[in-house]
Amino acid sequence: MNALTLNLLGDLEVIRDGQVLALPPSRKTRALLAYLALHTRSLSREHLCDLLWEMPDDPRGSLRWSLSKLRRLVDTPGRTRLRADRSVVGLDTTDIDIDVVTLHALHGECLETADVERLELTAARYRGPFLEGLELDRFADFNGWCLAERQTALRAQTTLLATLVTRLAHTPERALPHAHAWVRIAPFDETARARLVSLLLAQHRPREAEQQLQLGVRLIREAGLPLNGQLLRAWRDTKRLAAATPTNAAPETLSLPAVGELTLPDSDTLEVLRWAALLAPTASPATLSHVSGLDTNRIGAALEVAERRHWLTAEGGELRFTQSDMATELYAAISPARRQAMHRRIAEWLAESPLTDLSQAQELTHHAQASGDLDLAARATVEAGRFCLRICANEQAQHYAQRGLALAEEIADIRRVCLALELHDVLYRAAPLADWDNGARDVVALAEQALEHGALAHARLGYQLASHIRWAHGQWSDAHEETLQAERAMRCSEGREQVIAMAETARCLAMLERDLEQATELLAQAREQAIEQRLAHPAIPLAQGLLSLHEDRFDTAEAYFKEARTLCKAMGDRLGEFQAQELLLLMDLERDDYVGAGRHCKQLRELGERLRDGSEAPYAAAAEALCRYALEDDPDPFGVALVTLRHADARHRLAVLLLQAARLDLTRGRIESARQRAGEALEHARVLERRTEQLLAHALLAEAARRRDDVTELQYHAQAAEALAEAPVAGWARRRWQALREHPAAEDET
Fold first, then answer.
1. Residue 299's closest CA among 316, 310, 312?
2. What's the mean per-residue pLDDT of the chain?
3. Contacts 24+ apart (CB under 8 A), 684-690
């Protein structure tokens, strides 16, 4: 056995001498390890920099940092595997056991003649898709390579499992786990599902076989794929074979009535069975009552007949067909037009109540799409996506949003525009946009179309979404313009949407530190109308808190941010909840309350881990490391966490934490570190046109220059800080500069 094992199927894993090693936190560093491991030749540093880094990130410096982390993983005393010089980098894998390499090597031989035990050991190493969760959407070359490797590995594993199921067919108990694995990675493959059904029946497990049959038919139908009959043939042929083969066991037997037998004078029974077929594999009497239009007594009588004839059975309040292919045949016997109408009724009934679990979301989208009504189907994906966001099921939310956008393309006129805007909103909240600049442009174009058609609420949504996208990527002037456009779009509206528009505009202007008088005026109008309409929306307390914070009224701001956090949590707005929590953390840091800040960091980390793959989780980790630096005087974890945050392209969050760390550096006498961090923060603040952070950076740089006796630099930064202090900056930042100027040695005590 090799001393070093590298598993790339599923989550990346490095094992040395039987011990799983802790991996670097940087996703790019882990991606670099996988990329080097599967390339047998050395690669140029330039190629690797272009593959995984962008110019503002100092690609060569980031590559050097990543290589230093990888050496600790792959190099051992007396054995150097990672080899690098000034121009090329390579990984010697001759004594590294790599799971995906083993899988492909096996396919280079003959699977039909290879030792079965070896096949099983190789199949067992497949823990999931290649580099699961390690996609880097912003880096097209790496992402394209990763997806290609993933598909190749998936095909190889599918072929391996199919071979094992075939070769072990004479021992069903041994073949069954491989059939289950085959279905898990190929859920829409009718052949795989048919082999699983056959093996379950051969093991005398008809109930599980029936469930797999129903699930397979449903998944394949939902995917819009044709059914070729393999599943039904597997069910019937295996059962006939089992009935003809004597056995000492007493297997469970099920009788299959002909569908024609159901055509009885009792039309209610047939109607109930038809609805149950649409709701298969399970339905409840209450659901049948809501969707069928029959009263309770007629449904009860029909169910009594169905149970007496062993067509339906009741288990735990749910109804199931005793024979799964009865449901399939009943469904097929319904005319297409009637079937669509029935699906529509079910979808409309499901949409009447809030979704409470993922299965309901799947039911809603399935029936809405099967109804043939594109508008209803796209609307269902919006609701399903929003529900997934509430429970932080971001991948599912992204899936529903993409599915809905594909449906919306087929819808005409303004309905398409409005649905597309709502779906783009779900998509952005579920995951950062790979091409955010064009994404923002597309949303603005949709908002313009909505405005032309008088869909003011959707126009506001589009402009506001574009503002958030541009704000997150440092285009604050453009974000400011989109914010004002959102407010202009709603001037002719009234009611709830106008209140939300004014509050959101006030919130964004306060975030951007632009037009604060207008923000205050809009907020006052929004508050007055919200009280009249008894409306509560988190944008109102968030805007109030931001304006109070700007005015150096911390206690008032804290109360508003806590109110906003509660409202966001209740509404399922996880990004808004994170922002409110982030602002509470900022106030604790400014108060030098690092114990309280640590508590907020813990909550941010838990929330960030559940949120989309943006800058939230890296920010929470960096803030937590900053608190550790403050409480334990250990700066190393913070330095490591900053690298990941830099890669997340979050200039404002990076500037805020760098300024806090620079303050701590000055307190501990680490003047050069403070100077570097404040200097980097100043660069970010200038790009973002953030006067408050520029003032704080100049103030810290002036103090660093004073301690270094650098008169020229002191005068430059002091003058810059004085000029900024006269501009509209946050009151607490002006207070900190004044305290530093008057009592420079005691700045850390203010």
1. 312
2. 86
3. 684/474, 684/651, 684/652, 684/654, 684/655, 684/658, 685/655, 687/474, 687/651, 688/474, 688/476, 688/651, 688/652, 688/655, 689/476, 689/477, 690/476, 690/513, 690/652, 690/655
Half-sphere exposure for 439 (CA within 13 Å, toward CB)? 21
Burial code of 450-479, b = ≥16 C-beta within 10 A, e = fewer?
bbeeebbbbbbbbbbbbbbbbbbbbbbebb
Closest CA to 464 of 432, 493, 428: 428
Of 293, 275, 297, which is closest to residue 284 (Cα–Cα)? 275
Distance from C-alpha of 394 to C-alpha of 264, rounded to nearest angstrom: 48
On the CB side of 588, how many CA atoms lie within 13 Å of its CA? 21
Low-confidence residues of the chain: pLDDT under 50: 1, 245-265, 746-750
Tell me the C-alpha distance between 546 and 586, whole Å. 12
Residue with tokens 């990543």: 66
Cα torsion angle, 132, 134, 140, 145, sign? negative
Residue 283's beta-bridge partner residues? Answer: 319
Determine contact, residues 271/302, Cβ cutoff 8 Å: yes
Q: What is the CA radius of gyration of the chain?
A: 31
Domains 1-167 and 266-334 share a fold: yes
Q: What is the residue extent of each domain of the chain?
A: 1-167, 266-334, 650-750
Which helix (H) or strand (E) covers residue 309, if one does? none
Place of tokens 């950062």: 432
Output the pTM of the full model: 0.59
Domain 266-334 listed as CATH 1.10.10.10: yes
According to the CATH classification, is domain 1-167 in 1.20.1250.20? no
Strand, helix or coil for residue 539: helix
Q: What pLDDT shows up at residue 318? A: 87
Helices vs strands, H then E, count in the chain: 35, 9
One-letter amino acid identity for 175?
A: A
User: Are 400 and 361 spatial neighbours (Cβ–Cβ below 8 Å)?
Assistant: yes
Q: What is the pLDDT of residue 264?
A: 39
| Orientation angle between helical segments 267-279 and 324-333, nearest 10 degrees | 110
Write the CA distances from 140 to 27, 434, 461, 722, integer angstroms.
15, 9, 29, 45
| Sheet of 88-91, strand order | 43-44, 88-91, 82-84
The pLDDT of residue 209 is 85
Query: Residue 82, SS3?
Result: strand
User: Strand pairing of 43-44 and 88-91?
Assistant: antiparallel
Give rounded-to-5 percent helix, strand, coil for the chain. Answer: 70, 5, 25
Distance CA 26, CA 8 (A): 16
In this prediction, residue 256 carries a pLDDT of 37
DSSP type of residue 9: B
Q: For residue 575, what pLDDT is reported?
A: 87
H/E element, 426 = helix 413-430
With CA atoms as reference, report the closest residue to 423 among 405, 446, 409.
405
366 three-state secondary structure: helix
DSSP state of 223: T
Judge whether 312 and 273 are in contact, CB under 8 Å: yes
Inter-residue contact 646 to 684 (CB < 8 Å): no
Domain 650-750 belongs in CATH node 1.25.40 = yes
CB atoms within 10 A of CB 45: 19
pLDDT of residue 260: 43
